[in-house]
Amino acid sequence: MSFLLVWAYRRSMRPSPWLAALLLILDVLAFNSLIAVYGAASNPFNAVLLIPVVMAFILLPPVYAVFILLVSVAAQTLQIWLLPVHHHDAEMVSHFYAMVLSFVITSAVIAGVIFYFRYQLTQREASIQQLRERQLRDEQLLAIGTAAAQLTHEVATPAQSLRFLLEEAAEQKPNPDWLAPIVHEFSRIETELENWRGVADAIREKRRSDYLISEIWQTLQHVISITRPEVEVKWLPYAYTGHELIEADPTLAPALSSIVTNACDAALESNTPVTVSLTLARGRVLMAVSNYNASLNEAQLAALGSRIIASDSGFGVGAVVSNATIEKFAGEVVWQREGQQVVTQVSLPIKSLPIKSQPNQD
């Protein structure tokens, strides 16, 4: 039966675990019956009983493998009761007891070693799979970043031409009524383009700065109040000393605001508020964003932020970019469900601002 299982697995024919376990149990019973006839525990070839045990721990889930190990140990122990039938003296009987005990210990050691290596192999495969997903995500982000950089470069020339046209229009007397609003909106476009160039330069040169958590908190409130004024956002107060810093680059604030914005978009469909809280614990800042969302299932939550996935509300690009950005600063983003609420938890390391000592006054 064992060779039949090997033949099946080599041809990619995987029987169900219970069927494979049944075949191995038949092997255990057949081997033990054969050994019982020819000397019982005194048979020097009882090591052949290790074959089903080894195959069980290699091919079957742990529960089935442990059951086969127990059956094999029990069958080998029964061989001791058959020793009087073969008429051995006391010294030989003690030797055969030791052989059975040696078989039990050897089976347990082999089972433990195989189980350990299977566990290590499973962990390594999971790490490789996670590495592949991260590599795929990085490739997708690189494509998005390349497209964004190309778009910025292509927009720069028309923007300069439009600026010249607006300056010529401003020289006309009197100025048209439509000119001032257009100049104002176009100035915002130029500011965003300039900010994008600054962010791109900081990323390319790997420049990082220290940001006060209180300033980031205020920036988030300001950005959300402008971009999503129609959504009720509850900003819970938090206790801080004012000296907590986060080492990051200019992409941190957009990444955090993107997480809150996504929560606002999801809450807007159900007309429910979004709750944002901030806590400090164990040298890290923890931001929790809670919003109502009944459409995301557990599989989508598990994949959110790790790769681009299609859904009714988009492809999750914002979550992927935010997750990659926060991971760059040794942070972590976790999405989990609490009832009808989806809670996004962001964790980032912090450091304290050194307090300057005041000179003594004489």
Automatic annotation (TrEMBL):
Q: InterPro entries, from UniProt?
A: HATPase_C_sf
Record field: transmembrane: 20-41, 48-75, 95-117
Q: What keywords appear on the UniProt entry? A: Membrane, Transmembrane, Transmembrane helix
This one is known as: Sensor histidine kinase
